[in-house]
Amino acid sequence: MERNTIKEITSILSNYLQGKEKAIELTLITFFSKGHLLIEDLPGLGKTTLAIGIAKVLGLDYGRVQATSDLLPSDIIGVSVFNKEKSQFEFKPGPIFNNILLVDEINRATPKTQSALLEAMGEKQVTVDGTTYKLPEPFFVIATQNPSEQYGTFPLPESQLDRFLMKISIGYPSKEAEKEIIKGGSKREELYSLKPFITKEQILKIREEIQKVYVSDKMADYILDIVWATRESKYLESGLSTRGTLALVNSAKTNAFFEGRDFIIPEDIKKLYPYVITHRVIFKPEFESQKQEIIKWIVESVPIPL
Predict the structure, then answer these.
(1) Least confident of 52-66, 174-188, 248-262
(2) Which helix (H) or strand (E) segment is 253 a member of?
(3) Where are the domain boundaries for CATH 1.10.8.80 in the chain?
(4) Is the pLDDT confidence value at 107 over 70?
């Protein structure tokens, strides 16, 4: 899969998500990096349409959960039901047993229900009544959340945020794109007729190829310098975790692969760090309102390897 193929997929989905090419590209990078995606935005900006489109164009199974305050972990994972005929319990899998799971408005679920996703996202498996069940491969969670100031939301704990490779916003469409939406109406129903662009076998092969992208000693040192700059920053309570470091590396590898390279360069890091780092670090309270500016300053202060 070369850069042209990604452009074709982005172009196809752009017909249904006008003006959202950046969000589509970041979603694909997250998916092929074997990560999960958190989208923070107001309702009605195309989050569900994006998830459906990605599932259809990749030819993968798709499930959706609408998070509410009374949502239970079993509503996501599944439940054991007693079979009278067999005199034994049988596991009835929940929507998490799909290749792509959309958890809509995840921060409206209680912390107990949110935590039900931790094992699934980290280990690609779930445990019910002492029995472990493997999730399908590939497995990709797209979670959406409303801004924290919205009524009736529960902030995601740091351990949950760290499971998401990227956090992005879709944002409002441009006036030109919204004009086309007004004239043409919603195209979500048309998404269901989309034919897969690649096969599941191709997806798994691409993921293997991405892992082979070369990381030089200079690039490894550059990434570590950025990581340690977050850990030692006077603006942060805690810096990037080891999981966050690997997320930065993996996403850079995928971006390099999409651009036709078999090695990463500083531009890969500079393109992706706002979406990979910012939600994973903990800011001191007095700097909460300057998150993006602080992370940019930290990264830009690290010398680029020659």
Answers:
(1) 174-188
(2) helix 242-258
(3) 212-300
(4) yes
Tokens representing 26? Answer: 């970041």
Inter-residue contact 34 to 49 (CB < 8 Å): no
Model confidence, pTM? 0.90
Q: How confident is the model at residue 166 (pLDDT cuts 50, 70, 90)?
A: very high
Contact 51, 58 (CB under 8 A): no
- Fold (CATH) for 3-201: Rossmann fold (3.40.50)
Mean pLDDT of 186-203: 78
Give the distance between the most distant pair of CA atoms in the chain: 70
Q: pLDDT category, 95, cuts 50, 70, 90?
A: very high
* Residue among 42, 11, 126, 28 nearest 76 (CA): 126
Alpha-carbon distance of 202 to 281, in angstroms, equals 34
Instruction: Return residue ranges of the chain for CATH 3.40.50.300.
Output: 3-201
- Note the CATH number of domain 212-300: 1.10.8.80
**Strand, helix or coil for residue 43:** coil
